[in-house]
């Protein structure tokens, strides 16, 4: 049995392209693998708390010495990390906001990328002291954006701070393989946008087959 964790990050509940992509991916995955377990987090509607000075202090306090208040501060982080740890496949459906990720998605990442939980820190490793503790997961990134040309060699490649950022931190989510489907031209609403949507949906079955083969 494979465990699929789906993170929805769009602030929109209606007419969200990334949400629709995520829903289609989930439906097709579970249709082909109905015995798999599905975990869902709608962080676009219910964003995780931002980390704070008190949260950071709690993280760096040894577990046996934390106060009840500190344990409460870390309770959501613990749950989110449990979901992440259990997952074999992580699907993140998210729009691009201002050339980067929504604040809710950054908040989720900050809650789960946590020292002594999803990575260790050891200065004996020299200039690269961080080491992930999780591995073997696949990440499916389903994105939408208003403009276009954010992919490799695209006209706006250097303005893309969504996919590259997520790929950079993905190793601390335990990710070994990253797959991405993007819809562009949303603000133009022309035939290019229509073709981009069609291409995205046509790519989902092949992606699922590829991931299932490697999982």
TrEMBL record:
- UniProt keyword list: Flavoprotein, FMN, NAD, Oxidoreductase
This protein's source sits in the domain of life called: Bacteria
- What's its catalytic activity? 2 a quinone + NADH + H(+) = 2 a 1,4-benzosemiquinone + NAD(+); N,N-dimethyl-1,4-phenylenediamine + anthranilate + 2 NAD(+) = 2-(4-dimethylaminophenyl)diazenylbenzoate + 2 NADH + 2 H(+)
* A Pfam family assignment: Flavodoxin_2
Q: Does the keyword Oxidoreductase apply?
A: yes
First-tier enzyme category under EC: oxidoreductase
Q: What is its EC number?
A: 1.6.5.-, 1.7.1.17
Spell out the coiled coil positions from the record: none
SUPFAM superfamilies linked to this entry: Flavoproteins
Q: How is the cofactor bound?
A: Binds 1 FMN per subunit.
- State the needed cofactors, names only: FMN
Q: Pinpoint the Flavodoxin-like fold domain residues.
A: 4-202
Chain residues that bind FMN? 10, 16-18
This protein's assembly is summarised as:
Homodimer.
User: Briefly, what is this protein's role?
Assistant: Quinone reductase that provides resistance to thiol-specific stress caused by electrophilic quinones.
Family, according to the entry, reads as follows: Belongs to the azoreductase type 1 family.
The name this protein goes by in its record: FMN dependent NADH:quinone oxidoreductase
Underlying gene: azoR
